[in-house]
Design a protein that fits this description.
The chain is built from 18 helices and 21 strands. It is of the alpha+beta class and 552 residues long. The protein has three domains: 90 residues, PDZ domain (Pdz3 Domain), CATH 2.30.42; 189 residues, 2-enoyl-CoA Hydratase, Chain A, domain 1 (Alpha-Beta Complex); 138 residues, no CATH class. Helix 8 packs parallel to helix 9 and helix 13 runs antiparallel to helix 14. The longest helix has 28 residues. It is globular.
Length: 552
């Protein structure tokens, strides 16, 4: 009996220890919290005073849960899967046009993509879509109209369109196609044999497009290259490795990925390069992220290119896509990536950024030094720091407001309606009489705007009135107000050059599509100009790629 009692006591002790151990384990806490969550849902469903929208509430809970982890781990509901697939493949079935809603009523064509169904049917920027397949779109939002325009390849869709030029209402039947936007919207040869490539996104097989473009630029006389990654938010990691492979030898490590379990995967160049000697400048800015940072970081670490512009976004996290029930998906952060020098460009604090999305200032104590292959010093802590720091292009506030009010777009539409043809992009110039027409156009629209300075002054005046100090300072404040309150008429003349450059690009776009707009934009781009200067001065170019000489 004593033996049985000991065994029973031992069994009880084991059970209690196991139960207590499980009760304190992560697995138990997970099961417990899930049980509590479902119990709350059940109680709400049974007793809450109003009818509950379960889908909205649960989706909100999922999004809040994932948001607590990092900005890149996200839930992709079934309704957004096609848009997500487009971001990775660059493909969708549709008519090939960008639309938006204006004045809370009309659906306007913003851009017909060159060579796709809308363009081939004569649909133009500024045309208004009135109905899709006989159904009015006036009460629909952009997402609903966009969904009705998309569909299976080779299926028909009929649009009722109000034409910009003729003001006629016409029915246009389009046959949907597989729409794949180019990864290289524009490329050309600038003065001095400098090739220029604007690279917009790392989609599947984009490497083939880039290789073709480089070969064409060389045939046209390019002896150096600007590779523009500004505002390229990234894409597929494999494609980034292939892009680097164009310029560095086979077998070179481009990036390594380290996951939760400590396993490291190294990605190396696998093919013979296209050109290991062509001088190369890579342009980046605060919106260059992810795969763009892999390319810029690797080429910098390998001393293969001069990086110019502003510090990049700082996204050094790798995501994988996991399937969920009911055709939904979870994009989940699974690893961090590291450039060849060993640095991770992930921003230390990705929750507090500057208004433009750029990384804030990082204390020196939190930044680590690394060395490029040639011994140049580079740093981690958030983004790729350029070898040649360039100030970002800042538009005057009136330009930003004119853009936001669609006045640049609307004037370009009117210009296009009144002019059948214009000069080629590189030769088109807006006449003084055209700009005067624009001034009158803006004035008739009733346009007004407030600068940051005038807004701050108005806030100060309100505060002074509240605190009874205004009367003592009224005379001074009136003088100051006159100086900082913007004059539309004066500012349209003061910033004529900035506004004219944008107007020329917007007008050229109507006749020569996105390629024409970008060709005009590069003519006035100070960062492109500086990159060109670096490439045309071989001594200057090589000085960026060598470590500084130190006294011994």
């Amino acid at each position: 009996m004593r033996t049985i009692g000991k065994k029973l006591a031992l069994a009880t002790l084991i059970y209690l220890c196991t139960t207590l151990s499980f009760a304190s384990s992560p697995s138990f806490r997970l099961v417990k919290n899930i049980d509590v969550f479902f119990s709350i849902l059940q109680e709400l469903d049974l007793y809450y005073v109003d009818t509950i929208n379960h889908d909205r509430m649960i989706t909100s809970a999922i999004n809040d849960m994932l948001e607590s982890l990092d900005p890149y781990t996200v839930f992709i509901p079934e309704s957004e899967v096609s848009d997500f697939d487009f971001s990775t493949t660059g493909q969708y079935g549709g008519i090939g046009a960008l639309i938006r809603k204006r004045d809370n009523s009309r659906i306007e064509i913003v851009e017909p993509y060159e060579g796709f169904p809308a363009d081939k049917a004569g649909v133009k920027a500024g045309d208004v879509v009135l109905a899709v397949d006989g159904v009015s779109v006036n009460s629909k939002n952009v997402s609903e109209v966009s969904a009705s325009l998309k569909g299976e390849k080779a299926t028909d869709v009929m649009l009722k369109v109000l034409k910009l030029r003729t003001k006629d209402t016409v029915n246009v039947t389009l046959k949907r196609e597989q729409i794949q936007l180019p990864s290289v919207p524009y490329a050309g040869v600038l003065e001095g044999g400098v090739g220029y490539i604007y690279f917009s996104t790392f989609t599947r097989d984009c490497i083939d497009e880039v290789k073709t473009v480089i070969a064409e630029l060389k045939k046209k006389g390019a002896t150096s290259l600007i590779f523009d990654l500004r505002s390229n938010t990234g894409g597929l990691l494999d494609e980034a490795v292939k892009i680097v492979n164009l310029f560095v030898p086979k077998g070179q490590e481009v990036v390594s990925v380290r996951g939760r379990v400590g396993r490291t995967v190294k990605y190396k160049t696998e093919t013979q390069p296209l050109d290991v000697n062509i001088p190369l400048v890579v342009l980046i800015n605060s919106l260059s992220a992810s795969s763009s940072e892999i390319v810029a970081g690797a080429l910098q670490d390998l001393d293969r290119a001069v990086i110019a512009g502003q510090r990049s976004y700082g996204k050094g996290l790798v995501q994988s896509v996991r399937p969920l029930p009911f055709n939904e998906k979870l994009k989940i952060t699974t690893a961090k990536y590291y450039t060849p020098s060993g640095r991770c460009v992930q921003a230390i604090d990705y929750t507090h950024r500057n208004p433009d999305g750029s990384v804030g200032k990082i204390p020196d104590s939190l930044v680590n030094k690394f060395a490029t292959r040639a011994g140049r010093t580079v740093f981690d802590g958030g983004g790729v720091t350029p070898d040649e720091a360039l100030p970002p292009a800042l538009s005057p506030q009136i330009v930003q407001r004119l853009y936001e009010k669609n006045l640049l777009f609307d004037f370009a539409s009117r210009f296009y309606a009144e002019n059948d043809t214009i000069e080629i992009p590189s030769k088109f110039k807006l006449k003084d009489s055209d700009y005067q027409n624009f001034i009158e156009f803006v004035e008739k629209s009733g346009f007004s705007y407030e600068t940051s300075s005038s807004h701050a002054l108005n806030v100060l005046i309100a505060s002074l009135k509240k605190e009874k100090y205004y009367e003592d300072l009224e005379a001074d404040l009136k003088i100051l107000s006159e100086k900082v309150t913007p004059s539309v008429e004066k500012d349209l003349l003061r910033f004529k050059s900035d506004i004219t450059n944008l107007l020329e690009a917007e007008i050229v776009f109507r006749y020569y599509y996105q390629k024409g707009r970008m060709e005009v934009s590069t003519l006035y781009d100070n960062e492109v100009s500086r990159a060109k200067e670096i490439l045309l001065n071989r001594e200057l170019y090589e000085s960026f790629l060598k470590p500084p000489v130190t006294d011994k």
